[in-house]
Design goal:
This protein is of the alpha+beta class. It has one helix spanning 25-35, and strands at residues 2-7, 14-21, 39-40, 43-44. The protein has a domain at 1-43.
Length: 72
């Protein structure tokens, strides 16, 4: 088993989610059933099975917000 908290690459602060790798599928199903909707530090948590990221098309759109605040 292993766990990884995802952090912001600039501030190193938690982004509010992470990933846990379980020893086997049964342990994972049990953890999801018991922990999804539970609370941690007074906040509800969501526990689901991770899904692969969707592939992005090569040369996809990039968003840039630089200079956006100068528009009238």
């Amino acid at each position: 088993s292993s766990a990884k908290v995802i952090t912001d690459k600039f501030t190193q602060r938690s982004r509010g989610f992470g990933f846990v790798e379980m020893a086997d599928d049964e342990a994972a199903r049990k953890a999801i059933a018991e922990l999804d909707g539970a609370t941690a530090d007074g906040r509800a948590i969501k526990v689901t099975e991770a899904k692969p990221r969707e592939e992005r098309p090569a040369g996809g759109q990039r968003r840039s917000f630089a200079g956006q605040n100068n528009r009238w």
